[in-house]
Each structure stands twice: as structure tokens, then as C-alpha cells.
Amino acid sequence: xxxxxxxxxxxxxxxxxxxxxxxxxxxxxxxxxxxxxxxxxxxxxxxxxxxxxxxxxxxxxxxxxxxxxxxxxxxxxxxxxxxxxxxxxxxxxxxxxxxxxxxxxxxxxxxxxxxxxxxxxxxxxxxxxxxxxxxxxxxxxxxxxxxxxxxxxxxxxxxxxxxxxxxxxxxxxxxxxxxxxxxxxxxxxxxxxxxxxxxxxxxxxxxxxxxxxxxxxxxxxxxxxxxxxxxxxxxxxxxxxxxxxxxxxxxxxxxxxxxxxxxxxxxxxxxxxxxxxxxxxxxxxxxxxxxxxxxxxxxxxxxxxxxxxxxxxxxxxxxxxxxxxxxxxxxxxxxxxxxxxxxxxxxxxxxxxxxxxxxxxxxxxxxxxxxxxxxxxxxxxxxxxxxxxxxxxxxxxxxxxxxxxxxxxxxxxxxxxxxxxxxx
Length: 424
Known about the structure:
This protein has 424 residues and is an alpha+beta fold. It folds into 2 domains: 19-132, Copper amine oxidase-like, N-terminal domain (Copper Amine Oxidase, Chain A, domain 1, 2-Layer Sandwich); 138-408. The chain contains 9 helices and 26 strands. The strands form 4 sheets. Strands 14, 15, 16, 17, 18, 19, 20, 21, 22, 23, 24, 25 and 26 form a 13-stranded mixed sheet that branches. Strand 1 and strand 2 form a beta hairpin. Helix 4 (142-156) crosses helix 6. The protein is globular.
């Protein structure tokens, strides 16, 4: 369980009784896209959830008595169960009316996208919808601006990040009645972190509150954690222990961070493509006298099939001991959405909002005391980030006296055993 949590954390650092379901696939600007909800085909009309439109266009969507979409100068107004739509104040008839399926609003894909300027094609043999939509800002696509932002931030070498986060986590595991696990947990808190590319260094302070119903200790539990990651490894603080060093086996942190935080815009652009990211422009914004491009990025299950994660898993054999990493990644469902505000002058990413879900299940092998079973984990996360202090140096705590994590765990297990035996 601990090793699985480490792997999932590292992956985060670097996500019907209705019309007949059809095996329709989507391709956006030459890239496969798998929405988290089903796609439907009815009388030759492809119906998709409203959030898919937002993922493709990066547009603003408002749902009230009607449905309103705004993409640059284009506006679209629709209503559930009505085929009449207002496109830039002109009435048009849709081939199918928007409807609610399993609690989600579905809309006719081609009509909505073409009304906003996208090109939509259908391949009947492969049952694939191909969408072409490439906006430009100052002669650059959203991908190119995101790549230039990555290069600008890495050229600064250091920056600070503040984050407000909240998440809901559920864990279930099969087993005998006394050993079965069904835990839900709500977490929220803040993160303050400093990042450096060369030499690689990260210092993070996290303050979280956890609410675990039916926990042995009722009420909110506060957790304060610090973490340091540098060329020597990964270090965390433990209550009443201090700094401990995690065993990451053969994982090369420096190589991993260099790969993730590339300074080459061309390489950064290729990395986004390798990860299967769908990137588009949101509405331009202005804040504190600065003008921003907003880049909307979506990552889903395709990320696990990328060369990037293949290289990632190949670096960590020690962490994978006792874990079927291939099964974990195959059963890991990631659906993450980012909105990044990029300064139009400096190309620094000053703000970012992230939301999404991550789910996975894995088989648990039988042990001497427990039969084989299945563990399921689901996480929903919402976070907002502010980046600042570009190019400013920071101080990392001294972790030279850190103890070995495995040794600490062994000591605590021995003390617990002694306590249990003395109690008898």
C-alpha cells in the first residue's frame, strides 16, 4: 500500500438507458482522445457530454435555464430537449436536441463544434470523429505557447508555488469481514513549494486537514509535512522522528526531473504530444494589470500509454518489488483538466487551476494470513496554484542526518509488538 501510494504520488508530480451506445472514437488535431463518459451515436448524430466541448474548444460554458457557450467572438445558446439554437443571435435547428443522460448534459458534437469554428469529419469505416481546431495567439498555437512557457520558467531555474487543494479519496479492499477495507477521506489544505531545475531541488511544506468518518480518533486531523527532493534522494518529515530518507531504489531523480522540466521548447512540445495532452485556448484574461493567455489542457488514460511513463516505470525496479506495475498502470484511469494563465510578456505561468479524477484497481496477492483480493481507489482533486519569485534562490533544510525510512518502520513495528505483548 505504501509503495503504491509513492508511485501514485510520483505520477501526480510529473490526472444507460439512453440512445444506443456505439464504439465511436475521437481524434483531436491528430491525437486520440478518450473522454471519461460514453459517446453515443443516434441516427447518424454523435452525442457527447458538454465537458467534451470544453476540452476541445477551451470555451466558457454556463448552465442555468439554458446552456450558453462562448468561444472568442462566437456564442451559442441551447436548451435541453429543444432543437432550436441561437448561434451568434441567429436561430438555427440542431439535428438532435441536447438531453440529460445519467445526470450529464449531452449535445450534438458536429453542430456545436462547427458553430464555434472547428472542422469535423466522420470516417464510417473506422467509426472515428476527427476534429481540427487550431486557434492562434500572436501567430502561435496553444501548444507552442505552453512549450515557450515551460522554457521560460525553466530558464528562470527557480520559482515558488502556493497551492490550495482539496480532495476526496475512497479505498476499498476485499477480504474476510474483519479485514475488509472501506475508507473514505476528505482532505484540504495548503502547499508551499520551491522548485529548482539545476541542480535539481524541491522543498515543499504541506498543511492538510483530514476528515475520516468512523476513524478511531474522531474529528478533523491536522497533518504537517515537509519534503525535500534533490540529487541525494527523497526526504520527508515524520512526527516525533524528524527527517527520514525514502528508498527509491534505482530511480534517477535528476534524470526524471530533467526529462519532466525540459528547457527546449521543441522537446517540451513533443513531450506534450507524447503524453497525449489535448491543448486549446481558453478566454484571454487580465489580472493585476497583466494580460494573460489561458491554455486549457486535458490529460486522460492515454497518458499511461506514452513513452514518457514507459521510461518512468523502467527507472524504478525497487519500488515495483511486490507490485504488478503493468497491471497498476493498465487499470489506472486518469482524467485531469488544467487551466494555465500565461503572462503575455514574460511567458511565465503565474496561475493554474486543476481538477479531475484518478481511479485504479489492482489485485492483491494472497499472504500467509490473508487470501487474495482486489483493492480499489478513487480520488477527486481540485486545486488552484500561484507561481512567483522566478529566478530567486531559496534555502533547503539540512537533511544530512535523515534516518532510513525502512529502519524507522521496523523500529515502530517492534515497539508496537512489545506494547501488545506487555498488555497481554
